[in-house]
């Protein structure tokens, strides 16, 4: 994770480069990992991390939006300039009044450390519970188990700054019999809530 300090620094850098009347910067920083399984065995582990920085430039009542994942100084200048260029070519929005001014922002605790630190071995152990149970029952299981973290920052030239982070875990499976199928899925902030045996018990009776 980049963290609140680094994301605030990125937002401040982008804001300082803008010549718009008002500017907003929104940064999304997702990091997710996925374990896929089919035919009662794991066949793929994938991991993805990205940063999406979006700039909204306001010129009077004209608004332009551009996005980029290039966080270098050159990249930030480029996305800010593209937002400004787009704003110059827009029609005025008569309903636009202003970007929001600073107000207290309530923090929401949606981050669970063990979910954020879950690796492929931990996901494989849960998937194994489903696949082993499917084999014993004469069924075929497929599905995916994903864990991930996400950060979002919102800042504007009027002084607004907000930061939020979260971690989530979700699993889904489809089990197939010769003439039928069953499905189950679970999602939680805490990966410890995801029980492969419980997911299997929810899906298997539907197929049987």
How would you characterize this protein structure?
This protein is an alpha+beta fold and 208 residues long. The protein has a single domain (4-207), classed as PmbA/TldD superfamily (PmbA/TldD fold, 2-Layer Sandwich), CATH 3.30.2290. The protein has helices at 4-16, 73-88, 113-116, 120-136, 196-207; strands at residues 22-38, 41-49, 52-59, 62-68, 140-156, 161-176, 181-188. Strands 1, 2, 3, 4, 5, 6 and 7 form a 7-stranded antiparallel beta sheet that branches. Strand 3 and strand 4 form a beta hairpin. The longest helix is centred in the middle third of the chain and has 17 residues, at 120-136. The model has no long low-confidence stretch (mean pLDDT 97).
Question: What topology emerges from the helices and strands here?
Answer:
Layout: H1 4-16, E1 22-38, E2 41-49, E3 52-59, E4 62-68, H2 73-88, H3 113-116, H4 120-136, E5 140-156, E6 161-176, E7 181-188, H5 196-207
Antiparallel strand pairs: 1-2, 1-3, 1-5, 3-4, 5-6, 6-7
A few lines on this structure:
The protein has 208 residues and is an alpha+beta fold. The protein is 30% helix and 39% strand. Strands 1, 2, 3, 4, 5, 6 and 7 form a seven-stranded antiparallel beta sheet that branches.
